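Quick entry between incubations.
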Amino acid sequence: MLELKSLTKRFGDKTAVDAATFTVDRPMMIGIIGRSGAGKSTLLRMLNRLSDASDGEILFEGREISSLKGAARREWQSRCAMIFQQFNLVPRMDVVSNVLHGTLNRRSTFATMFNLYPQEDIHKAIEILDRLGIAEQAPKRAEALSGGQQQRVAIARALMQDPSIILADEPIASLDPMNAQIVMDALRRIHEEDGRMVIANLHTLDTARRYCDRVIGMRDGRIVFDGRPDQLTTGVARDIYGAGADFSEAATSTAIETLDQSNENLVLA
Amino acid sequence: MTDATLAAAQQRQTVDSIQNSYMAQVQRRRLYGGLTLLIFVVLMVSGFNVADDRNAGGFWDGLHQIGDYPAEVLAEAWEKRADLPALIVEFFPALVETINIAAVSTLIGAAAGLILSLLSTRGLARWPRLIPVFRRSMDIMRAVPEIVIALVLIFVLAGGPVPAMIAIAIHTAGALGKMFSEVAENADLKPVEGLASTGANWSQRMWLGVLPQVAPNYLSYALLRFEINIRASAILGFVGAGGLGYELRNAMAWGPGRFDEAAAIFILLFGTIVFFDQISSRYRNRLTEGQNA
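Done. Structure below.
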């Protein structure tokens, strides 16, 4: 389905992503882990074509993606939705309008500038919001919502695009543990119910283990691990994060249960 | 089983009602938007017709002649192109006078605007009750066109650069005072409170507590104003305030055949404005984005 062939991104003399190569043959939920600066975001941004690759190619269902230009590139972007760490909604517009932005690629510039969306789109937007449990917030301004709610609006916008792939760049990094769980559950449900591929950059190992079918570890721009979550041992994790023996997974975790575990560890120690 | 279907039906009902109320809201918004657009179009069309009727010539009759004057200027200037360098040198002193008028008036206007802005900002003002007085006086300074002040002053002080300088400075004080005061409103009051706790007087609090915070923005606005004032001071030359504008008015009249001089002055003016525009925009970028920009 999706194939990356030695995808490379250079900024000046610095290589952010170094010959990333992997193949995904069926829709699955993939977590990309690695410390900050490892090239995770750059990789996702190249997949969405927000930024151009310096080298290598991306193939989706046999079609070359990395060289698309103009309207063809925007058409690809509409099939490859992106979710951001800081939600990237338009703060002063209402929630439904933000969700309707997912249809921008299909509608005429003129109609969208005057907020003229078809009624069935508006109904669909509210149904998606209901599926994510925030239909009551529909008429409010996006900036009036909490972080977790805003991230769900962003997911609704992504769903409105009816995409084949959903890319999530640190979707839970600015959320509290409770909202992080709601958002990750939503992403997992979308993957299971709609059969869409989800690729998420994650900053916690336990999230990757718990939600993903496949985990890719990056370090200094290179892919250093690619396998099932159960293959992700503490030793491998130390390798990915370049950490010493004092590395503790609980220290980076945001899951509520881990807190109890680490407390127990403390008591035991 | 029945509970589940009942809950699902209820859920469906809430979604329906949310959809309906949102659609109603959207329809209301579209109606208002359409009405506004309609009123706008009607006003524009009728306004154009009124203006066109009152015009000496007609807009559509005159439209095709729009290129005549520039074409003649260019043609004559091209014919006498050998004289242009000499003319540019000849008018250079007038250009310096124009820039001088702009620079002095920007300095004086910015200083006055600074004081006026601090006096008319809530939370900073020396006499909070007088805020409306200072605000209205700035409004008046902005409202009266420079050219009117300059004409009045030329009657009193006779022609020359000084009336132009005063006229532009008054306008600058009003315009910059308004912008400065908007910046000062967003200044953090904690440092001011800190200084007040040490027994500092009002001027000390403003100079040491507020100015360091707002200085980059103030400078950037003042530089923008300097560019505008170069144009203004060139125009004031038309009413006898000296500088490049005075020479331009004499040269650009249709008839005496001095279009080569007009072209030389246009080149000087254009070059100057581009020059200062480039310098000040680079400097302003550095101020707002930090040293590495």
